[in-house]
């Protein structure tokens, strides 16, 4: 699975309240949540995102409360993947549940806002096309790629039951 998009860069300790403010937790509509994604720290973020773009961040991305709304808002505004130095544990599970791929990369400081990245989930490669640099990261397991392709865990399970997956 290949993902190609422009980088939206963030720092360390981006918590779930930064990703989606608590006042929007009255809905689970990903488009509505996406329209408010990151607005407390980057007010025009959702208007700058093009479908398929990528968030790159520092350490401890997705820390804070254990709400599925955070990765849902990220996906809802059009972000196709998140690359960070590391993630809060609960963010892993929630991102998988809604079908948002994530990759850990120690060298996120070398990637700039606006760079064009190409991520090969199957090979564990992140190519910074803007800087002609390639990074090796973990391979995103095939079963997780299948969950992403189905749009999340619930759709994946439904597909398995119906014989679609």
Overview of this protein structure:
- The chain is an alpha/beta fold and 165 residues long.
- The chain has one domain (2-162): Aconitase, domain 4, CATH 3.20.19.10.
- It is 30% helix and 19% strand.
- It is built from 7 helices and 7 strands; from the N terminus they run E-H-H-H-E-H-E-H-E-E-E-E-H-H.
- It has helices spanning 16-19, 30-34, 45-48, 69-76, 89-98, 142-149, 153-162; strands at 2-9, 54-57, 81-84, 102-104, 116-120, 125-128, 133-136.
- A 7-stranded mixed sheet has the order 4-3-2-1-5-6-7, with no helix packed on it.
- Helix 4 (69-76) crosses helix 5 (89-98).
- It is globular, with a radius of gyration of 15 Å.
- The model has no long low-confidence stretch (mean pLDDT 93).
In short:
With 165 residues, this protein is α/β, with parallel strands linked by helices. Helices cover 30% and strands 19% of the residues.
């Amino acid at each position: 699975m290949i993902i190609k998009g422009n980088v939206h860069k963030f720092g360390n300790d981006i918590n779930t309240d930064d990703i989606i403010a608590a006042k929007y937790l009255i809905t689970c509509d990903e488009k509505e949540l996406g329209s408010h994604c990151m607005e407390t720290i980057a007010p025009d973020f959702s208007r700058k995102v093009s479908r398929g773009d990528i968030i790159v961040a520092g350490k401890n991305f997705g820390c804070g409360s254990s709400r599925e709304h955070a990765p849902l808002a990220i996906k809802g505004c059009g972000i196709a993947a998140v690359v960070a130095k590391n993630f809060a544990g609960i963010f892993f599970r929630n991102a998988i549940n809604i079908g948002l791929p994530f990759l850990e990369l120690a060298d996120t400081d070398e990637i700039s806002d606006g760079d064009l990245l190409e991520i090969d989930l199957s090979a564990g490669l992140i190519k910074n096309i803007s800087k002609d640099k390639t990074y090796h990261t973990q391979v995103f397991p095939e079963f997780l790629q299948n969950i992403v392709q189905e749009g999340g865990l619930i759709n994946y399970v439904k597909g398995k039951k119906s014989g679609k997956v």
